[in-house]
Design a protein that fits this description.
Blueprint lengths: L6 H29 L6 H19 L2 H8 L16 H19 L2 H23 L3 H22 L5 H7 L7 H23 L15 H15 L8 E3 L5 E5 L2 E6 L6 H20 L15 H15 L3 H14 L9 H8 L16 H17 L7 H13 L15 H4 L6 H20 L3 H6 L4 H10 L9 H9 L6 H14 L4
Parallel strand pairs: 1-3
Antiparallel strand pairs: 2-3
Helix pairs in contact: 1-2, 1-3, 2-5, 5-6, 6-7, 8-21, 9-10, 10-11, 11-17, 12-13, 14-15, 14-17, 17-21
Bound molecules: zinc ion.
The site of zinc ion (ZN) has 4 residues, from helix 10 and helix 11.
Length: 509
């Protein structure tokens, strides 16, 4: 006998679905803002988005929603009241409760003030960055730090206020756990960079020629077609910073950045954002609007993008697949490039000042620098006014380079201007998770390299769908990693991956 749908559960889902539809509209407005919106519409667009954000917050914390939720679970104790729910539904109800409590923990006035600070902060940051004027940004940074401390107090934490902030992006991760992973990784990476620095350097001059922008764009579209991105459920556009956005599994869009002299950057961006889009497209549609229809965490999301960008894209088999296509598309530019030269150039390691263009080896250090600074700012051991100096010192310590200006130093990213503390670590976690997952994938498909070389990507997509995408938030990040790989998460896979790959590229040992 087919089970009747649970009435209270259906009501709750309907209510939540409505809020999800509104946030889908909000993300379309943001997508438009970054791609096609006329410049003069900036101020009305900010108002449109703010209005919608207010409505969504109200929906998520409304009495109506709480009442529907309370019929299924005790909000105080977390005890499930509707025992007849399936285990999947119980998990959804528990997530609804914890999301609701977190949302509710922040007073409406605080949420509004934070949203205002965030938009003013970004505005001030844009000008301050352009004019290389840290003093102009400082008052906002001070407010951002103090409001994040307040936010942590509202949300509550056991050991460290940073845990409360991190939890918003990477549920259940703590600063103590991050330290356990980051501290040994930091030592390993700085050591590897030193070894690479004294080895024979890789030549990537071939990428620095000028490549026609519209040709680059159409190559990006072809690339998407080859790896199986469905243009009927998404599209590729251009923006100043590449991003992906999804309002539903049937509409998952991505953007890329085209620079005539940074031709590899377009390829990396397209692969990266497509990895994010695959995740969103693979989320279970039946659960759209429920927590089960959402991604687990930003770290897991980033593991999907880095998977396609680095683990597949920057692998030798993929280079072997790609090179003939590149030679054909950009006739005359890459004629004499061998596979080995291409692969090495694609993976060139070079300590630099900018996170977004960093190579695989130096990238996590850019993240750790920001993480260590965030911790110090939240603890109060670093004052916002001393940020430029702290940045310079850490940059020198970790990467051996020093920025000449604050614009290319501590003001390069938008995150702090937006008020997002606790976000950066997820960028590094994504790489670590991807490596951990890859060990299991490789065991299941030891011939993956042959498939990639032949341009056959559906096996990879299916594996990711089955092990990650289709589960939504059914499991926690840790459970998901364990379920997919059979082992607890650690940084071991990542470290040995980097060690093997870069020893080959730079002929170390
Ligand atoms: Zn990403």
């Amino acid at each position: 006998m087919k089970k009747q749908p649970h009435k209270d559960y259906t009501r709750l889902h309907q209510h939540s679905r409505h809020a999800k539809i509104l946030s889908g509209i909000e993300s379309l407005l943001s997508w438009d803002q970054e791609t096609y919106m006329p410049k003069n519409a900036a101020s009305i667009r900010a108002e449109q988005i703010k209005t919608l954000a207010g409505i969504i917050h109200k929906e998520q914390t409304s009495k109506k929603f709480a009442n529907a939720l309370e019929r299924l679970i005790d909000l105080k104790t977390g005890k499930i009241l509707a025992e007849e729910l399936s285990s999947e539904q119980k998990r959804a109800v528990e997530l609804w409760r914890s999301d609701y409590l977190k949302e509710k923990a922040l007073p409406a006035k605080f949420v509004e003030d934070f949203a205002r600070l965030s938009s003013e902060g970004v505005f001030a940051w844009e000008t301050a960055k352009k004019e290389n004027n840290f003093k102009m940004f400082l008052p906002y940074l001070k407010k951002v730090v103090s409001m994040n401390r307040k936010k942590a107090d509202y949300l509550g934490f056991k050991n460290h206020p940073y845990d409360a902030l991190l939890d918003r992006y990477e549920p259940e991760m703590t600063a103590a756990e991050l330290d356990k992973v980051f501290i040994p990784l930091r030592t390993f990476l700085t050591g590897l960079i030193k070894k690479i620095g004294s080895a024979k350097q890789v030549d990537d001059a071939v990428f620095k020629q000028e490549y026609n922008p519209s040709q680059q764009f159409s190559f990006g579209q072809k690339l998407l077609e080859w790896i199986g991105y469905d243009p009927a459920s998404g599209r590729l556009d251009i923006s100043s910073h590449p991003f992906s956005t999804s309002s539903h599994p049937s509409d998952s869009r991505i953007t890329t950045r085209i620079d005539p002299r940074l031709f590899i950057s377009n390829i990396r961006s397209v692969l990266h954002e497509c990895g994010h889009a695959f995740y969103e497209m693979g989320l279970p549609e039946a659960h759209y609007g429920s927590p089960l229809g959402e991604a687990v965490s930003l770290g897991i999301h980033e593991s999907q993008s880095r998977w396609w960008e680095t683990r597949i894209g920057q692998s030798k088999p993929f280079c072997s697949f790609l090179l003939p296509h590149l030679k054909q598309e950009f006739e005359g530019k890459l004629e004499h490039l061998s596979l080995d030269q291409f692969w090495k150039a694609f993976n060139k390691v070079e300590p630099s000042l900018t996170r977004v263009e960093a190579d695989e080896v130096t990238y996590p250090l850019h993240v750790m620098l920001r993480y260590e600074i965030e911790i110090a700012l939240i603890e109060g051991t670093l004052q916002p006014k001393d940020l430029p100096q702290a940045w310079g010192e850490k940059m020198q310590e970790l990467l051996g380079v020093t920025p000449k200006t604050d614009s290319e130093g501590c003001m390069q990213d938008i995150h702090w201007a937006m008020g997002a503390f606790g976000y950066f670590p997820t960028y590094a976690l994504g790489n670590l998770y991807a490596a951990h997952l890859f060990t299991a994938f490789e065991k299941k498909h030891p011939n993956w390299d042959t498939l990639v070389q032949q341009g056959e990507f559906s096996t990879i997509k299916t594996w990711l769908y089955e092990n990650i995408h289709q589960h939504g938030r059914r499991y926690t990040g840790k459970e998901l990693l364990k379920k997919a790989t059979g082992t607890d998460f650690s940084s071991d896979a990542y470290i040995s991956y980097l060690e093997n790959k870069y020893s080959q590229i730079y002929c170390l040992n």
